[in-house]
Amino acid sequence: MDEHYDVIVLGTGLKECIISGLLSVEGKKVLHMDRNGYYGGESASLNLNQLWEKFRGEQNNGKPPAELGASRDYNVDLIPKFILSSGLLVKMLLHTDVTRYLDFKVVDGSYVYQGGKIQKVPSTDKEALSSSLVGLLEKLPLRKFFIYVQNYEENKPETHEGLKLKEMSMSDLFKKFGIKDNLIDFIGHAIALYLDDSYLNQPAFGTVMRMKLYADSLARYSKSPYIYPMYGLGELPQAFARLSAIYGGTYMLNKPIENIVFGEDGKIRVTSEGETVTCDQIVCDPSYFPDKVQKKGKIIRSICVLNAPVNGADKKFESLQIIIPQKQVKRESDIYVGVISAPHMVCPKGKFIAIVSTTVETADPEKELAPAYALLGQIQEKFVSISDFYEPIGDGVQDKIFISKSYDATSHFETTCEDVMDIYKRITGKDLVLTVHPNILKQQQEQGVEEN
What is the CATH number of domain 4-43+234-293+391-451? Predict the structure, then answer.
């Protein structure tokens, strides 16, 4: 008789591993399979030999140049993203107690590109007064605006100053405080972290909440709002996989999917290597059901190995983010640059890994990265990939196939986690409440008793 599971998860990308962990903690019987022989899928971290093999193949006899250093010293992310220290991913890590499997280090700085150079992002009223991004006549309006945002609390009308943020547009709120276009550019893209300017016509409440999240994240470590896992982002899928296993989840790598049949009895039959199991629901990345997704664009990512810090950044900074807002380089979407180095255990000392990403807009995608390349200076090695961005056609509620979106070009995990929360709600019919799960608390208490 076929073994039956509540959920079968296909692919071990970060989104799939988070969902697998969440559902296992909920008490669901989960089987997790991947055609690859490693965790992480698209969101894996590769050593130098793996990186060379993936992008260069037999070039240079299949071996990276010796001057790059030892392969084992590299843990390079295929999809780079920083973690907002008060953001959704941290809340998910705490909700599931996955933090015990990971170590993080704060990112040194956050920059925005304006007027042909990079400048540190001011995010408080005090920084607004000293920032060279802000003109003399702009400092006071910006300070007042930041104070308003910092003081705003949804449930305290006295902090609203008579403004109805859920009704007025963000554009109107900027006008109310006299915020000009150049300031709007960095607020919307480098603090509120929007991908484009469509937010200006949406209710101001969402942008104010995003700004508060950025400020709360910055307040945790003061250097920047971002943290990053030691040894790269590939540690994240493995940590959630470990969580799932603790709560009864079963993992199988190197498992090609040969057949998926939808039975009249409501069960889904999945066959791999001649063996068939059944389940009630499937969660997967877009590659497993190409007929159930639609292409929405392309993303270009360029992994660059540098011998020196980024031009214009503080020389003490060994990690940083740069956002190049679309208007600054006459584009429709932003360009993101993430830089990490030896303190995060991703490359040898003296090297820097800079990963540039954006949404493709022309027939010459790499040329679109020119403004970022100019900031990076001399690039020792470069590995470029262009991938399609897919979204599911349906919500999965009828056919019980819940498909994640592809990873976008943003340099943070908020959109990734929003997709996870949306899939979780469609699967379970309830919102994901990001407090420590009762089953986690129970296990922590039992472990405490055993230790005592």
Answer: 3.50.50.60
Query: What secondary structure letter does DSSP report for 273?
Result: T
According to CATH, the superfamily of the domain at 121-221 is Guanine Nucleotide Dissociation Inhibitor, domain 1 (1.10.405.10)
Q: Which helix (H) or strand (E) holds 277?
A: strand 275-284
AA identity, residue 350 = G
Cα 201 to chain centroid, rounded: 25
The enclosing H or E element of 340 equals: strand 335-341
DSSP at 148: H
In 101-228, alpha helices (H): 125-130, 139-151, 170-177, 181-186, 204-221
What is the C-alpha separation between 29 and 413, in angstroms, rounded? 27
CATH class in words for 50-107+295-390: alpha beta
pLDDT digits (tens, 9 = 90+) for 370-416: 999 999 989 999 999 999 999 999 999 999 999 999 999 888 888 89
Q: Please give the distance of CA 18 from its chain centroid, rounded to a whole number.
A: 13
* Residue range 136-178, pLDDT digits in tens: 777 788 889 989 999 999 999 999 999 999 999 999 999 999 9
**What length is written for the chain?**
452
User: Apex CA 102: angle with CA 98 and CA 381, to 5°?
Assistant: 130
Angle at 276 between CA 273 and CA 277, to 5 degrees: 130
Ramachandran region, residue 41 (left: φ > 0; alpha: ψ -120 to 50; beta: rest): left
- Residue pair 427/23 in contact (Cβ under 8 Å)? The answer is yes
Cα–Cα distance measured from residue 121 to residue 154, given in angstroms and rounded to the nearest whole number = 26
Q: Are 419 and 432 within 8 A, CB to CB?
A: no
Give pTM, 2 decimals: 0.87
Predicted pLDDT at 449: 44
Encode pLDDT of 241-296 as tens digits. Answer: 999 999 999 999 899 999 999 988 889 999 999 899 999 999 999 999 999 999 99
